[in-house]
Specification:
- By secondary structure, this protein is mainly beta.
- Helices cover 7% and strands 48% of the residues.
- The chain has one helix at 6-23; strands spanning 53-61, 65-73, 78-87, 97-98, 102-110, 118-124, 128-131, 136-139, 143-151, 157-165, 174-183, 187-196, 204-214, 217-224, 241-251.
- It is globular, with a radius of gyration of 18 Å.
């Protein structure tokens, strides 16, 4: 089985999705409207897809891996989705490994007020750096989380934060913080601190840029784990990682 080359794969995805996205318009206003962000790089926000909304996301990560995720707005405040990682899909390394699918659920129970942020409760099982020996991700998924989001001080500057329990065996409580600044609905600058509170599982500092090629199609370019510390529990070294992510939103 031949593997895809990264530039060709991204170019094909860009052409197909971008063509569809240019045709998408806000039905009531007849104009393009940028949709709320449901996540930054790794951390969730309180944003959700609209009822009947649909999102497909493809994320290329280190060593030729790809994560594909689908999410649906099944009810007015409830999103359901699933994701799956495929290691070594891009490039010349082998063998290709498909990891088990993971589920995502998010329920936005509060829309926020003048002082209080919008809030959502969710679950995300998708992790990164799968270890075949332990059959676990070295970087665990968010697990059960509570996320809040609110615009602060400057227009289009939004802060996000929350708590999560990734592993019910240990029941450790982690935290995450982030912010994004959107410039003229064209580009957004992302910053986040993830995996806070526990020294035995080091925190991560991630930065990135989200380009709104159309209001319904975004290209993310990010760098994860700037200045990584300590190795993973299985002895593998932590490294700074570059990612590329394509996200397309529509209605069904």
């Amino acid at each position: 089985m031949k593997k895809l080359k990264l530039p060709a794969a991204l170019a094909c995805a860009l052409l197909v999705i971008n063509s569809a996205a240019f045709a998408a318009r806000d039905k009531e206003k007849g104009e393009n409207v940028v949709l709320p962000d449901t996540e930054l790089i790794d951390i969730p926000t309180a944003g959700i897809l609209d009822y009947y909304g649909f999102q497909v996301k493809n994320r290329a990560y280190s060593q030729g891996g790809v994560v594909t995720a689908l999410n649906f707005g099944v009810l007015e405040r409830l999103n359901l989705g699933a994701s799956m990682a495929v290691d070594k899909l891009i490039g010349s390394d082998s063998p290709i490994k498909m990891r088990r699918p993971e589920i995502q659920v998010k329920f936005r129970f509060f829309d926020g007020g003048y002082y209080v942020p919008a809030a959502a409760l969710g679950y995300d099982g998708q992790g990164y750096y799968y270890d075949s020996d332990s059959k676990k991700y070295m970087e665990k998924g968010k697990g059960l989380y509570l996320a809040g989001s609110k615009e602060i001080g400057i227009p289009n500057l939004t802060a996000h934060g929350g708590f999560n329990v990734p592993d019910f065996d240990t029941s450790y409580l982690f935290g995450f913080l982030g912010a994004n600044y959107t410039l003229e609905d064209k580009v957004s600058f992302l910053l986040e601190f993830d995996n806070l509170f526990h020294k035995d599982d080091p925190s991560r500092f991630n930065v990135g840029t989200r380009v709104y090629i159309t209001p319904y199609f975004q290209l993310d370019i990010g760098v994860r784990e700037l200045s990584p510390s300590r190795d993973f529990s299985n002895g593998l070294p932590r490294k700074t990682e570059r990612i590329v992510q394509l996200r397309y939103n529509t209605n069904f």
